User: Which sequence fits this backbone?
């Protein structure tokens, strides 16, 4: 009997320790990535003209082509793996408080990949629309960007993004075309291959752009920046 009680007490202690460890992890987990750009944002001395809000596709853009951002006074606020829910949480800190003229929003890939578990396409759409509405309310013009093509996610092979991405893009495009102050930016059409993946010359694995892929995106987004602002500025792009 004493042995049984001692074993039971040991199990309770272990369970408590496990809960304590999990709670400790939660205290330090930055779910929405609010720490990622907090110091960079505080150190800004000039308001950026355009903030690019996104996930790894946006983050990779800066890694491949840093001068596209630096020479044009653009701010890259992409965090790899992020879903629209996480972007929405950090939108005020990483976009609104920087007071840009324009925000380019590229979101949805990781929702489709279920990086944070299942989310209905309608909820992803609503998150992205909420970011657009927050921007507009704060006097920021919106470039709403299509989800880039992918036929396969190597980290989530059971998902079939080629069937889902066009559906989300259709929803986003219809919203942009019906909404004042929101300009549609179509990366998907010129980058998609016959197999519905990103064309091989633009991506090493069919879903993330390489340097050539980002050149295509720059040639598409720069005219959109001028159009939504009513300007004809010559921006630096990689040739």
Assistant:
């Amino acid at each position: 009997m004493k042995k049984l009680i001692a074993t039971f007490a040991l199990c309770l202690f272990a369970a408590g320790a496990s809960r304590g460890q999990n709670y400790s992890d939660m205290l330090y987990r930055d779910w929405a990535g609010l720490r990622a750009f907090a110091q960079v944002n505080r150190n800004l001395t000039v308001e950026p003209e355009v903030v690019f809000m996104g996930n790894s596709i946006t983050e990779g853009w800066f890694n491949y082509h840093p001068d596209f951002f630096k020479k044009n006074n653009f701010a890259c606020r992409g965090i790899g793996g992020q879903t629209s829910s996480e972007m929405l949480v950090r939108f005020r800190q990483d976009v609104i408080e920087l007071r840009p003229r324009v925000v380019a929003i590229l979101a949805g890939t990781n929702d489709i990949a279920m990086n944070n578990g299942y989310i209905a396409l309608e909820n992803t759409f609503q998150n992205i629309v909420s970011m657009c509405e927050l921007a507009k309310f704060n006097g920021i013009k919106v470039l709403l960007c299509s989800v880039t093509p992918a036929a396969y996610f190597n980290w989530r092979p059971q998902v079939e993004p080629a069937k889902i991405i066009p559906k989300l893009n259709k929803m986003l495009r219809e919203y942009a075309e019906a909404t004042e102050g929101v300009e549609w930016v179509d990366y998907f059409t010129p980058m998609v291959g016959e197999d519905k993946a990103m064309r091989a010359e633009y991506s090493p694995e069919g879903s993330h752009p390489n340097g050539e892929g980002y050149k295509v995106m720059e040639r598409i987004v720069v005219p959109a920046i001028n159009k939504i602002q009513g300007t004809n500025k010559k921006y630096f792009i990689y040739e």
